[in-house]
TrEMBL record:
Domain WxL Interacting Protein peptidoglycan binding as annotated: residue spans: 35-153
One Pfam short name: WxLIP_HBD
Record PROSITE patterns: PROKAR_LIPOPROTEIN
Keyword Membrane part of the UniProt annotation: yes
Transmembrane segments: 320-338
Keywords: Membrane, Transmembrane, Transmembrane helix
Occurrences of domain WxL Interacting Protein host binding (ranges): 181-301
Domain of life: Bacteria
Keyword set includes Plastid: no
Organism expressing this protein natively: Bacillus seohaeanensis
Name under which the protein is recorded: WxL protein peptidoglycan domain-containing protein
């Protein structure tokens, strides 16, 4: 009975030690500092939640509202900026004033919806309270099916002062963080327009070893379900690698360079063929484009990869509490064995 009692006590003690070492803070759900909620008007599509999806007429004036809820224990200042809708180079929508990338842009006849949105530049929200922000929209007078843009809500974070040693002493600099929330604004006109999805030129990014192809949505509508397969072959017609892309959407009147990672064991200069076979909306789309990889492209890629810093040794992913608990367990076992021998 004494032995069984000791074993039970021993197991109970180990359990308490391991539980006390476990950090529960990582599994607690954290409330976001802000909650941004669109207040839906009567012309909102009933099935859509999380953003404005409105049926409108060209030239119509809209008075919208957005609720900003401050979940913090302090005042929060939020900057509100109208945004245009771009297609991300890898597919899907992105909302910015300007794209900031050479791999995505709007076509010349695109509706830059940010120019039609009027909103107060910034607001301050008291702790644990909410305010409603008015947004005025003049719908563009265009022939099309959709116009797409958005609103960016930027919350300024706290400033942190840092110091860094340089040759002539210590340089101070200030880091300022910010959190950005985006709400899309989709305007749906009564007129339907045909799709005009096109493939452009193909090429090769030497710095990233990626094949790319230009994709264009040359219509005033959101292009749905862009997806399919791609294959790259060499000059002899031998397949080197293949893959799938999508599905994703493209913003109205937008252009991207869509990347595909080089998937063959070797990279040699020469002429290659990229074959695309897929869908855009309800239409079948196919193309076959040739592109060249020059010797300088191969050298650039090899040089860049050879000069990279060596990969650091993989850090242990075993939590500290496991090591502590294991050490204590080992010590208690040795103590118990020693007592039995005595």
């Amino acid at each position: 009975m004494k032995k069984a009692s000791f074993v039970k006590t021993f197991i109970y003690l180990i359990t308490i030690i391991l539980l006390s070492c476990f950090d529960y803070s990582n599994i607690r759900a954290q409330e976001p500092p802000l909650t941004i909620e669109p207040i839906y008007p009567d012309n909102q599509h009933k099935a859509t939640k999380g953003y404005f999806d409105l049926s409108v007429n060209p030239g119509e004036k809209l008075n919208l509202k957005v609720k900003i809820i401050n979940n913090e224990d302090k005042d929060v200042t939020v900057t509100i900026t109208p945004a245009n809708a771009f297609t991300s180079p890898t597919g899907g929508m992105m909302y910015e004033q300007e794209a900031g990338s050479e791999n995505t842009r709007l076509l010349d006849d695109a509706v830059r919806l940010a120019e039609y949105i009027d909103v107060k530049g910034s607001v301050t929200v008291s702790p644990h309270s909410a305010i409603e922000v008015p947004i005025a929209v003049n719908t563009p007078k265009v022939k099309g099916e959709n116009a797409l843009g958005g609103l960016l809500f930027t919350m300024q974070g706290e400033k942190t002062e840092k110091a860094q040693e340089v040759e002539k002493g210590t340089a101070n600099f200030i880091l300022k963080t910010e959190t950005v929330y985006a709400i899309a604004l989709q305007l749906n006109f009564l007129e339907e327009v045909p799709s005009n999805y096109l493939f452009g030129e193909s090429g090769f990014h030497a710095d990233t070893a990626q094949v790319y192809i230009e994709m264009l949505n040359d219509a005033n509508k959101i292009e749905e379900n862009v997806s399919g397969n791609y294959t790259v072959t060499n000059q002899s017609g031998e397949e080197l690698f293949s893959g799938r892309y999508g599905p994703f959407k493209m913003a109205p009147n937008s252009w991207i360079r869509f990347p595909m990672q080089w998937g063959h064991d070797t990279l040699d200069d020469g002429t290659y063929t990229l074959t695309m076979d897929g869908t855009a909306g309800d239409s079948k789309v196919t193309t076959s484009k040739t592109f060249k990889i020059a010797n300088k492209d191969v050298e650039q890629y090899v040089e860049k990869n050879e000069t990279k810093l060596p990969t650091a040794a993989t850090e242990s992913t075993v939590p500290t509490w496991v090591w502590v608990g294991g050490a204590i367990l080992f010590g208690l076992i040795m103590f118990f064995i020693g007592r039995r021998k005595k």
